[in-house]
Write a structure and sequence with these properties.
With 104 residues, the chain is α+β, with helices and mostly antiparallel strands. The chain has helices at 17-22, 71-87, and strands spanning 6-7, 12-13, 31-34, 38-42, 52-56. The strands form 2 sheets. A 3-stranded antiparallel beta sheet has the order 3-4-5.
Length: 104
């Protein structure tokens, strides 16, 4: 297995697709919202009409590496996702699904 090249000072891994999207280096990603900490983009293979992914710009190896001090980050990720849905006209927040997945 090839090793990932990373730059800890920038918080990104060169061969991580999510790092490429977060740093505007993936031309196919359709970013719908971005701030200094998070990026929200349309899923490349959507399972629903409004299927978005929210990721931190700073690389996190996997959900298994999350710590207690990441709680605020995860909450802000959920809020950005809800904001994007509201901007797309979705008003029933009881009919949404959230998922945390491995990004490797």
């Amino acid at each position: 297995m090839a090793r990932s090249r990373s730059d800890p000072s920038e918080g990104k891994v060169e061969d991580c697709i999510f790092c490429l999207i977060a740093n505007n280096q993936d031309k196919e990603a359709e970013v719908v919202k971005k701030n200094k900490e998070l990026v929200c983009f349309r899923d490349i293979d959507p399972a629903a009409p409004h299927h978005y992914l929210v990721i931190p710009i700073h690389h996190i190896h996997s959900c298994l590496s999350l710590q207690r001090d990441h709680i605020g980050l995860v909450e802000r990720m959920a809020e950005m996702g809800k904001a994007v849905l509201r901007e797309q006209g979705i008003t029933d927040m009881m009919d949404i699904r959230k998922n945390v997945s491995e990004k490797g």
